[in-house]
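Running log. JK asked me to keep both predictions on one page so they can be read side by side. First protein, sequence followed by its tokens:
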Amino acid sequence: MRPITLDPVTHRTNPRTVDLALLAVALAWGSSYLAAKESVTTAAVFAFLTLRFGIAAVGLGLVVAPRLRGLTRSEVAWGSVFGAILSVVLVLETFGVTKTSAANAGLIISLTIVVTPLLDRRTRIPATFYWCAAVAVAGVGLLTQNGGFAAPGLGDLLMLFAAVVRSVHVIVISRVSAGRALDPGRVTLVQFAAALAVFVVLSAITGRGVVDVATEMTAHSWLLVVHLALSCTVFAFVVQMWAARRTSAARVSVLLGTEPLWAAVIGVTVAGDPVTVVGVVGAGLILTGTYLARRVEAQAGRADQTAAAEAMTSTAPRSSSSSPPPTTVPIAAAARSDGVPEADGRPSSAANAPSSVSSIISASSSRRWRLVRS
């Protein structure tokens, strides 16, 4: 197996094929909320996550096996840190989705896109970004009202906390990976293994053992768990690594950014989540606010890069030799999250990347990479 590389190369792959593959990832992520809701109960969350990440770790291990010989102590250490934070995200998300609708869960978690830049002190935030964030937050406020104005439900609040912790996950990955040579495949595998270890311990402490839960699961529940582990995690990782060499980061971000839309559509059409005028307006505000926030952040990032390049050019010593000008290497970022993959796999400003967080968000001195959304 040829090792995964993020070096930009020219391929003859049909652009539509790349787009469809990325949309398939977004669709899988969007379906993950309903899949989790239908396959887990509050009492079995830790055992459920143990099964899900056990399967995912094995699947991803097979994908990155040729690269494991190069595993470094730094990758083990930081991958473990990422995994510990990811475990908190997944616990909040999974408990949250058992207490709210799949549509609400998918839409609220997309706030990672606007929360991440607000928490990252290193990010220069244009004034218009705050307006976009306000629109998205207002949308959450409306979405959590079920036909009348009342306090948000526990599930909605847990998903909101999950979005905040996922943003922290994205920021930590971004800062740690800057200037460090970390392999995305190996670090992601260590991250999954670390999260799995946390879930195993929590499952044992709560008294609901993995074996007991596994024997009680129906064939339908097993199918959903395998879907979450392989389609939403391993498949998403492979596609993002593959697509990163065949399309632009902006296109990856836009396509993976359709995840909350798929979550809402699946929640309403498949699960029969209730549709109210207030809820529809709220969903529209969330989608609009997060989309515009992503665009504003991207434009600000490009402006900063241009200014930095011009500053370097103006201060660089003149040379009579004709050396080629420096070039920038755009690498896809997703966000699960994004951002999440914006790292999830879910790309934040993918993605992540979710990162997201996606989801994707991670950069070394010579390259960017995203961790798949989980």
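And the second, directly underneath as requested:
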Amino acid sequence: MALERTRNSFHWADYVILVLSLLISCSVGIYFALSGGKQKTTAEYLMGDRSMRLVPVSVSLVASFLSAILILGHPAEIYLNGIGFHFHLIGATIAYLTTAFLFVGLFYQLRITSAFEYLEQRFQSKLVRCIGTLLNLVIMIMYAGSAIFAPCTATER
């Protein structure tokens, strides 16, 4: 039996969802750009002048780490191998949220902006901070490669 080629295309509902998600994302950015006032210092720009609460900052950090690997790979994994992988997602979600709230809360109380700044304060050493930064840079380069490669291979047709 010959393999049939299927025509992959968006349904009208897919286009509606795509456009709505882009419009919502853009409108949130435009709203805060127009209503938030102009930032005068880098602390106001980068940290929102420390006026945001713990929950939005934590959720933002978790959401920014999610990528096309999660969006494309996890549904495919569940489809191919069953629902068992879904339990991994539940545990990973709990771990991500717990870590985000724990560290963001700690960083907020200490008035620091990154884990690398925490390393420097904790060990009183710029060398430890630089080593941590370098190791994270290597990990993020490898992660970015796979996060970019995965959707490219999925959409190469």
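Observation for JK regarding the second prediction: The first helix runs from residue 12 to 35.
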